[in-house]
Amino acid sequence: MKALAGYVAGLLFGLGLAISGMTDPARVLGFLDLAGAWDPTLMFVLGGAVATTFVGYRLAWARGKPLFEASFQLPTRRDLDARLLGGAALFGIGWGLSGYCPGPAVASIAGLSWPLAAMLAAMAAGWYLARKIA
């Protein structure tokens, strides 16, 4: 049942990305281009995500425990270190250069292009290097 719930959640996430236009790197880059032809449509996607998360967390906490686990698994570290800040910076730079973040990139695999393949290869190389360095 836990695997089915994960599949359904992933499917809904992917559909949401596709329907909202987050899988279109031109739309994402247009949103990030504040000085040029700015495309504000993704602001509504981000606002919807924040509102959904706000409501969803309150509903989840009201249950007291997850549906398919004994307890919530929450991060315990709260400090900011160089690895976290460096990783966040690399993520932002990669997203800004390519127009893809990991979720939309994976959701876009069906329409694989050379820029998408390059981004996915760079993402896989980053994962590999992060595991080797850690």
From TrEMBL:
The chain crosses the membrane at residues 42-61, 82-100, 106-130. Keywords: Membrane, Transmembrane, Transmembrane helix. It comes from the Bacteria. It holds the Pfam family DUF6691. This is Sulphur transport domain-containing protein.
